[in-house]
Amino acid sequence: MYSFNSRVRYSECDSEGRLTLPSLLNYFQDCSTFHSESLGLGIEYLKKNHLVWVLASWQIVAESYPKLYEEMEIGTFPYEFKGFMGMRNFYMKTKQGEYTARANSLWSLLSTDNWKPTTPPVQMKEGYQIEPRLPMDYAPRKIAIPENGKCEEPIVVRKHHLDTNHHVNNGQYISIAMEYLPEGFLIGQMRAEYKKQAFLDNILYPYVVNMQGALETAGKDRYVVSLQDEQGVPYVNMEFA
After folding, report:
1. Nearest-5° Cα angle at 207, 101 to 199
2. Under CATH, domain 2-127 is a member of which superfamily?
């Protein structure tokens, strides 16, 4: 397990002074990056060995969002390797040790020589310590896209959307999708299913569905946002509830 401590920064807060979902996701991404770098399995190792981890899916369950300047612990660990897939949990805790968020993620290891899936090398399997997965309600990876949605204005991928792999960072998709949620909508769970990579100057076509009263919780709506190419093939499907 790898963890680090931090405080909620002003730049990470919404208008109510609480940590935003994209900021929470960034903490999780940074934590996994720190973990890999601490083991010598980070960005330079991957480049040297012509490898890249590509995110297949996220499930983030937020019980609460910490306030400005609040202390928290962010942690992560892998809980399974299966073929070319790696499964990793994340968490955020208060100073008192209470969970504010937990997450599950699935990753695919690709060879940058041919962009095909490849199994992790021995050094990687030996470096990452497998631990029991977090207790949480694990949702399916796949997200169904309902009919009767609304097509929004296309979005052109710009440089600020890209990460070190030169494709749209998974957190950028979440920020884009959240623009279609109503003001004041409190996200208790976010799921994302990544289908293909988007690069500079690609055009994203948002398709948004409001599933009113779709959940058992009284009065709780569910929103599905699919960012697609011109032919309607998804780059990523997301669900907010």
Report:
1. 80
2. Hotdog Thioesterase (3.10.129.10)
The encoded tokens of residue 105 equal: 């993620």
In angstroms, the CA 210 to CA 144 distance is: 13
Domains of the chain by residue range = 2-127, 150-240
Report the CATH number of the 150-240 domain.
3.10.129.10
Half-sphere exposure of 72 (CA within 13 A, CB side): 26
Tens digit of pLDDT for each residue in 94-106?
999 999 999 999 9
For residue range 83-134, what is the model confidence (pLDDT) as tens digits? Answer: 999 999 999 999 999 999 999 999 999 999 999 999 999 999 999 999 999 9
Question: Residue 40 and residue 124: Cα distance in Å, rounded?
Answer: 9
Q: Which residues pair with 109 in a beta bridge?
A: 53
CA distances from 155 to 58, 68, 112, 200, 205 (A): 22, 31, 27, 11, 7
- For 173-229, the three-class secondary structure string (H helix, E strand, C coil) is HHHHHHCCCCCCCCCCEEEEEECCCCCCCCEEEEEEEEECCCCCCCCCCEEEEEEEC
pTM above 0.70, yes or no: yes
C-alpha dihedral, 168 to 142 to 238 to 132, nearest 10°: -80
Q: Nearest-CA neighbor of 23 among 12, 31, 15, 32?
A: 12
- How many other C-beta atoms lie within 10 A of the C-beta of residue 135? 9
Helix (H) or strand (E) holding 36: helix 21-38
